[in-house]
Every structure is written in structure tokens, then in C-alpha cells.
Amino acid sequence: MKFPIFSKKFLYTFSGAFFWAIAILFTKIILKNGENTYNLVFWTILLACPFWIYIFSKNIKEFKTISRKSYWILIGMGLIGSMAVNIIEMFAIKYSQAINYSFLIRSVVLFTIIFAFVFLGEKITWKKILITFFILAGAYLLTTSGKIIHLSSGDIFTLIEALLLSFGNTILGKMATKRMSSDLSASASYIIAVLPMTLIALFMGAIAMPKAPIFLILLTISNIFGTTFRFKAYKNASASYVTMIYSFTPVIVLFLAIPFLGETITPIQIIGGVLIILAGIFVEKLKI
After folding, report:
1. Rounded to an integer, what distance in angstroms lies between the CA atom of residue 135 and that of residue 139?
2. Cβ of 264: how many Cβ atoms within 10 Å?
């Protein structure tokens, strides 16, 4: 199937970024209703599990043929991804100022470019460096409204989270989809992550009936679509390309938050969003 305006890899990657933004919006709505973070994690895992088990069952024959190295890649995705999101993120948000966290988490772009060079052989070019500068500049204006941020020792947790997300999700995700189908990569790594993520929720004593079941279902559906498109993006695009296009996510979240959460936007934030959008366009046009 041919796409006259955008490439297949752009459509997959942008769709993944879009559904991630939708998931963030639903998460904010649910947390505003007083939901516990770990209880939210537990229920989203529980509701999505049947779908991913079904997808895995359809690819069980392929799973039996993959190499031992591929098994370790899947385990790495499941464990590192869940650790980054459920453990390190807790410390990052707790000990880092919100404005610092929102900006520094975008360092995932830098980490991905470096890791992609080391582990995947993707070249570091001036095009990538220039586009990365635009993305980070746009992210700074978008998340800080141009205010000067003061770094603290707690910000190291945010950088560690960005590093783990870069390696555990994007780099290992790209490695996996080079060796197997995107559906098998997504479903197997998700199932592997279920146990540690559930244990974390139980350890935190957070299991209770959800407070916003309708939004929880919508969040689960958004996560399923987001994960599906993300792994299809890994299959069709470079790791650097995926993480750069995913920089659209905070822009989408901000504009969705205006009508749904009553948040406001400043002219400086608009400039930041424009810079990120322009960077994304160049990523596609320059074939990064």
C-alpha cells in the first residue's frame, strides 16, 4: 500500500505518538479523580492482558523458532521498561521539580541516538544533531515556558529513567523487530512485564477497585493501540527516527489538555511546539 504524502514509517510512528498522548490525557483525568498511581498500573495491566495473550497465542509458532538471544531481548524489554516506568519514575517525580522532569525526560532523544550508534550501527550525522537541537529547544520552551530551570541532585533519576526508556524500549524494541514480527515483540515483552509490574503494585499495597472505570477502559484501549503502532514503527523505521517523531507527543498532549483539562498555553509554548513540529517534518523529509 502506497502513501502519497507520508511514508508508512511516519504514519506508524506518529500514530504511536498520538495514542501515547491520548493515554497520557486519560491518565491525568484518572489521577485527578484521586486514583492511586500503582492501582492504575495494576488495572491497566489486568485489562490489557487478555488482548496481548491472544496476540501472543497467534504467534506461538514463531516464538518457538526464535533464538536464545531474542529471548533475552524480550526479557530485557519487559524488565527494563517496567523498572523505568514503575520504579525510577517514582523517584524522578518525587525528587525532581515538575518543570525539570518535563524537560529532562526529553533527553531520551540524545540517549537513543548514542545507543543506536553503538548497538545498531546507526550513523550520527549533522542532520540528526541539528534536528535534536530543535527538538530539545522546542521541548524546553514547551515545558518551561522559557523559564530558567535550576538542576538538583534529584534530576539524576529523570536522566536514568530517560536512559532506561531509550535502551529498554527503543533500542531493544528495534533489535526485537529485526528478529521477529512486531506483534510477537509487543505481546511477548508485555506478558514478561506483567509479573514485575504486578508485584510492584502489590508491594505498594495499592490494589483497590478503580475510581474511574470508563476512563480506565479508554486508557487501556489507547495503550493497546499505542503499543501496537510503536512496535510497527520499530519494524519499519530506525530507532533515531522513532524517538524523534515521538517528540510530537508532548505537543499533542498540551493541545488536548486545553479543551479537556482546562489548561492554558502561552505564546512561548506555541513557539516551542512549532519548533518540535518543524523538527518532525525535517526528520521525515531528510529521511533520518
Report:
1. 6
2. 8
